[in-house]
């Protein structure tokens, strides 16, 4: 565990995002390589290898069952071994051959081309809000005056600085896209560039489209489609399409974007002043996917104008939501940082009193800017995993608002837009008006009610742990930071629940062409042994540390296997899907209760990046009695975004964050005592 090679592995894993970001910031200054690299195809793992690893992953469940009075380990293990051997010697060979044939006939790889998008995302019928979309709270812009960011009196309405920061962020995200397309950053002369450029371009100019049974993506707009150069802007539930990209692919000047956004805000204020209210069509995107699909078809049937609006909306580069408020949590809400928690709530789902409004949850990348300039990103998960758009977000905010890019100076107060009399552009934008009927109005009301039920049940907050960070873990304790954090989560779960659960950690398969993710099964026999040792007052620290190192070594091996295309969960999914039920094919391996339990990820986790430019991040728990945890490990601190459900009596976000803190402090004490013993 103290070897140079071992420490190098953890450094490579934790530095991936910083390498990507530094590449984006400095551009491509290297000479073009003579040989353009390629990425290999994602392999179909060997059948025996996967089944052997699957059996190994069942051990902690079998040990726990035995400890709690269930079947003895040996007999239960032998029963699963028999299932595995029967499958491997018979139907499994046929399924493996079919999977290999599928891969042979796939342009890129067997998983991404045929399985993952639908099974992981588009076939899910649950609402996207909280359940699927991820959220990212961006750091403050130091150029924004303090009395704008923290006004003494929070007044509703749009502000000058809000519009300026929004224009600047849109400009930066569009510039990121232009640099990608011009091969200036993440060039295709590197393997990292090949993987990242493909992944990053997936979240621009697209949208998820609801369909009964299985959603789809909108068709890619042509390079000559004017809608492909627009940004969707939402304000007070009205929608606008703003010309934001020049014909050469570069972003429109930020000052022009600002003028167009000001014109939109003026349009909204006039309408509100006349007593008009928008039908909140966007809230329909928060609903059950089949219900949204029915309403989508009904909307299209009402008028050709609705079809035109949808075509425009889905083709836009990205979305921007301007919120006419700075959300604040009620005083009764329990949190250590009310401003941060409120920020996270608004990025996740909008104002808690009217969640789902002023958003289009099917867009993969939505910038959100509040009246006090707090900003964030809401992402639809299916086109790409959150790490990739987070790099674009980092690029957007690493450089604050440049006053020189805007000819007009603005004051530091909370000056409402409607108090400004300067001229604004009337060109370069259009309002997307919807033709609605009583059914749509009623469906919007019902969808909003259901969205509020989901949001009201979502307990989300951010833990900022400052006692130490990655530097101490790798330099002082000389351990793998990611594995260390995962063990802390295992200990926190056990201390709060008194048992163990299947745990999902995301691994990127970026070594392969069009690679997405693989599962790291954190719960292992070794992690369980260490957690139990920490709970045993008779166990010595020397033994605990030895067990911790063994658990970390096991976890690091699992990371390596998943990242190099040798994980088991995607392969098991592929094998199961190769069965032909209509021909009577089935196997008890996939019907075994333990097969399901070992994939019931009540602890769903994902490490994002150091996140120096971010305040927090998160995603929803997969199960009612589980946690969704996104963490950002930085040099001197660790951040954890935690989500659970208020309605589950055994779940408690604040309590779990306290347990994570206690686990991390106890682990430092454990490692420090061992270091001191060697002095």
UniProtKB/TrEMBL annotation:
Keywords: Acyltransferase, Transferase. One of its GO terms (molecular function) is acyltransferase activity. It comes from the Eukaryota. The keyword Transferase applies. The keyword Nucleus does not apply. Residues 42-661 form the Choline/carnitine acyltransferase domain. The active site is at 381 (proton acceptor). Pfam families: Carn_acyltransf. InterPro entries: Carn_acyl_trans (IPR000542), CAT-like_dom_sf (IPR023213), Cho/carn_acyl_trans (IPR039551), Cho/carn_acyl_trans_2 (IPR042231). SUPFAM superfamilies: CoA-dependent acyltransferases (SSF52777). Belongs to the carnitine/choline acetyltransferase family. PANTHER family: CARNITINE O-ACYLTRANSFERASE (PTHR22589), CHOLINE_CARNITINE ACYLTRANSFERASE DOMAIN-CONTAINING PROTEIN (PTHR22589:SF107). This is Acyltransferase ChoActase/COT/CPT.
């Amino acid at each position: 565990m103290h070897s140079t090679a071992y420490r190098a592995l953890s450094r490579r894993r934790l530095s991936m995002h910083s390498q990507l970001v530094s590449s984006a910031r400095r551009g491509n200054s290297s000479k073009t390589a003579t040989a353009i690299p390629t990425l290999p195809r994602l392999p179909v793992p060997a059948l025996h290898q996967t089944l052997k690893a699957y059996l190994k992953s069942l051990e902690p469940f079998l040990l726990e069952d035995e400890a709690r009075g269930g079947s003895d380990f040996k007999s239960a293990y032998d029963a699963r071994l028999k299932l595995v051997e029967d499958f491997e010697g018979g139907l499994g060979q046929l399924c493996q051959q079919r999977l290999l044939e599928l891969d042979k006939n796939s342009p890129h790889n067997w998983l991404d081309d045929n399985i993952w998008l639908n099974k992981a995302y588009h076939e899910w019928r649950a609402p996207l809000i909280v359940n699927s979309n991820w959220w990212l709270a961006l750091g403050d812009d130091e150029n924004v005056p303090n009395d704008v960011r923290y006004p003494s009196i929070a007044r509703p309405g749009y502000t000058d600085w809000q519009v300026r920061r929004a224009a600047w962020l849109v400009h930066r995200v569009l510039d990121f896209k232009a640099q990608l397309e011009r091969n200036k950053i993440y060039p295709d002369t590197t393997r990292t560039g090949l993987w990242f450029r493909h992944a990053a371009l997936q979240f621009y100019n697209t949208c998820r489209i609801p369909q009964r049974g299985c959603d789809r993506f909108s068709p890619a707009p042509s390079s000559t489609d004017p809608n492909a150069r627009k940004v969707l802007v939402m304000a007070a539930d009205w929608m606008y399409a703003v010309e934001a990209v020049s014909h050469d692919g570069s972003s429109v000047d930020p000052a022009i974007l600002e003028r167009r956004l000001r014109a939109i805000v003026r349009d909204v204020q006039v309408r509100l002043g006349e007593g008009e209210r928008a039908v909140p069509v966007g809230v329909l995107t928060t609903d059950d996917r089949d219900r949204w699909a029915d309403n989508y078809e009904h909307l299209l049937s009402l008028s050709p104008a609705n079809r035109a609006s949808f075509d425009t909306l889905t083709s836009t580069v990205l979305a921007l939501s301007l919120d006419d408020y700075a959300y604040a949590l009620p005083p009764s809400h329990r949190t250590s940082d009310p401003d941060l928690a409120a920020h996270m709530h608004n990025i996740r789902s909008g104002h808690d009193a009217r969640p789902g409004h002023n958003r289009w949850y099917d867009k993969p990348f939505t910038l959100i800017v509040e009246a006090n300039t707090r900003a964030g990103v809401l992402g639809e998960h299916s086109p790409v995993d959150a790490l990739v758009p987070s790099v674009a977000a980092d690029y957007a905010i690493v450089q604050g608002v440049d006053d020189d890019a805007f000819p007009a100076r603005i004051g530091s107060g909370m000056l409402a837009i409607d108090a400004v009399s300067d001229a604004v552009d009337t060109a370069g934008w259009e309002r997307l008006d919807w033709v609605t009927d009583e059914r749509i109005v009623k469906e919007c009301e019902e969808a909003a009610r259901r969205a509020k039920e989901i949001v009201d049940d979502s307990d989300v907050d951010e833990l900022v742990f400052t006692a130490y960070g990655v530097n101490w873990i790798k330099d002082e304790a000389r351990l793998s930071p990611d594995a260390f954090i995962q063990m802390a989560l295992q200990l926190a779960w056990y201390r709060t629940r008194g048992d163990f659960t299947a745990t999902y950690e995301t691994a990127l398969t970026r070594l392969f062409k069009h690679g997405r993710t693989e599962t790291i099964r954190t719960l292992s026999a070794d992690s369980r042994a260490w957690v139990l040792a920490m709970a045993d007052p008779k166990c010595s620290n020397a033994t605990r540390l030895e067990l911790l190192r063994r658990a970390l070594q096991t976890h690091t091996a699992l990371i390596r296997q998943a990242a190099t295309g040798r994980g088991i969960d995607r392969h098991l999914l592929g094998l199961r899907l190769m069965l032909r039920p209509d021909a009577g094919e089935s196997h008890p391996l996939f019907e075994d209760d333990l097969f399901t339990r070992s994939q019931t990820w009540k602890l769903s986790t994902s490490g994002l990046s150091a996140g120096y430019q971010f305040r927090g991040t998160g995603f929803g728990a997969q199960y009612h009695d589980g946690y969704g945890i996104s963490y950002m490990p930085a040099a001197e601190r660790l951040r954890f975004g935690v989500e659970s459900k208020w309605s589950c009596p055994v779940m408690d976000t604040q309590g779990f964050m306290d347990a994570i803190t206690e686990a991390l402090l106890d682990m430092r004490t454990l490692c420090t005592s061992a270091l001191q013993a060697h002095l």
